[in-house]
User: Fold these one by one.
Assistant:
Number 1:
Amino acid sequence: MQPIFVLVHSPSVGPSTWRPVAEHLAAAGYQVLVPSLLHIGAGAPPFWPRIVSAVRDDLRQVPAGSPVTLVAHSNAGLFLPAIRSGLDHPVASSIFVDAALPALIGPTPVAPPELLEFLGPKAVNGRLPRWTDWWDEADVAPMFSDPTMRQTVIEEQAHPAAVLLRAAHPGPRRLG
């Protein structure tokens, strides 16, 4: 049985960042899901259970015995062990695409001290601006050569809570 690809976007951006990959995989005959994590910064910490719930909820449409391949980008990589352990589906593999790696044992900070120092002054009323507003236009523009895609990514971005960056992956789950 072919595994279903579950593409998990960074909590700082939105699911459309995976759209080109999802389209290529679907065109090649694979089933693909891209759960939205846009809501996970809402409410009080801890945030990671909402990430697990979002992925698990998206998989409700898939028969329980169907294997999945989890594919994480950026900081979503930190949450793959928690996602994996929270699913009712067998996980065939986990793939990290330019993704942060969780610690083998114990909690993993979501952001290193130097990133917290960089982002701290950008927070307003405890909320960070959109990810594309963290960087200079000259740095962001080359990442999105298609203007329509770029606009979609900009518009759908969540405004993550600044406290989310101070959270930690719960540890000590392992990928297995």
Number 2:
Amino acid sequence: MFGTLSEETEVMVPASKAWALYGTLELAKLVTGKVVEAVEVVEGDGGDGSGSSCLVKLTLEYDVKEEFAANASLVTNRNLLGIMSVANEHLLKSN
């Protein structure tokens, strides 16, 4: 059973500044040990946006073996929310 969970939040910093955190291993350094055990960057090349704020969307993809499909309800977006919270706080403090 394949599924996804996504969260989106507005960050009150320019997209280029948000990407400097989210698009690099700096995000992993920031949240490792606080919210998650490890972060793996799968894809993304970034690109500068414009304006004084931007939207950040994180997606969690999961695949549960059919024999464990009843456990799919245990998948949570808690870590995504934690990552966004820690990252947004960091971005606002360093603005």
Number 3:
Amino acid sequence: MVIQRWQSVFLLIGAIAMGLFAFLGTVCIGVTDGMVCWHSLDCIPLFILNCATALVAFIDIFLFNNLKMQKRVAMIAAFMSLVSLALTVAAVMSLDQVVEAGTVAWRWTIGLPVVAVIFFIWANRRMRADERLLKSYDRIR
């Protein structure tokens, strides 16, 4: 019996996406002096949340011995990614520069938490498939 560990690949991609989201600029704001780029490093609690999400997803790769726990942690990482996206949008929209200038140019990195959520859900699906495969082999014995 061979269990394909695609969920490990999916979790790694999700962790990389959240790590990139933590360190890359998210939005460029047009002000009278030019463009100002904002990233999560400008908001330390948001940066910590992004890094924690990436770390949780990375640690989840090594929980393969406990499939139920691994599925639960993957869904927690997906939830943390969505919370991070919502808090990022709220933080950017509350900036004084956005209120004054009104011009916001979102960068491609704003989609990284969504990509991470998709990969976390795919990982969870692969974990369920592995669980079904293990149960079918137990029935045969």
